[in-house]
Amino acid sequence: MQLTSLPNSLRPREKLISKGAKALTDAELLAIFLRTGLPGMNVIELAQHLLNENKTLHNLFNASIEEFCSQKGLGTAKYVQLQAVLELSQRYMQERCQRDAVFNSPNSVYDYLTIQMRGLQQEVFMVLYLDSQNRLVKDEILFYGTINSASVYPREVVKAALKNNAAAVIFAHNHPSGIAEPSQADKLITNKLQQALQLVDISVLDHIIVGGETCVSFAERGLI
Fold first, then answer.
1. Structure confidence at residue 73 (pLDDT)
2. The whole model's pTM is what?
3. pLDDT greater at residue 2 or residue 11
4. How many helices (H) and strands (E) would you count in the chain?
5. Are the CB atoms for 39 and 52 separated by under 8 Å?
6. For the CA atoms of the chain, what is the radius of gyration?
7. Closest Cα to residue 147, out of 123, 122, 118?
8. Which of 63, 73, 164, 210 could form a disulfide with 174 if both were Cys (CB 3.0 to 4.6 A apart)?
């Protein structure tokens, strides 16, 4: 069925205007992004087909450019547009958290970190610098690569924390494998960093590992 044959209440754009974005299904939201369908397939049907093929939005959004462009109705222009939308969303959430967030519990930082790290193919080690009220001052990726192969230098972490006038820090890194369980190397480097920062009166509140859809908090596990 042509989209123009549908009543206004079932057309994604009109539905969003009248009811708000939250009222739309994943396929309807994706249809607005796609804008046009294909011969014999309207844009909502195309969107649903892509969701069925990819199983989840996560899989579709994190596909490589080659995987993305090989799919029906997609191409380089759509890939570029999608990456721009995702980056804008991430920056919006980052600004919002920097302005409003008080990171005083593991749950208060989970959403922020999963937005920052979910889908990354490379392991990164991030530090969240907090003020005396546990509000985010800045986040920074300090090291790339697995903790075993890419060194995490306590001296560099201390220097960066002092530079950012941090009263406390939260460490975070991702496991691209999707398994969030801390390794022995994770525990050892956390202990070294905690000892180094103790010397300059900076508290380590937590070390959070992001793996796929789950997070593990050292603080909740009693490891800090």
1. 87
2. 0.62
3. 11
4. 10, 5
5. no
6. 21
7. 123
8. 210
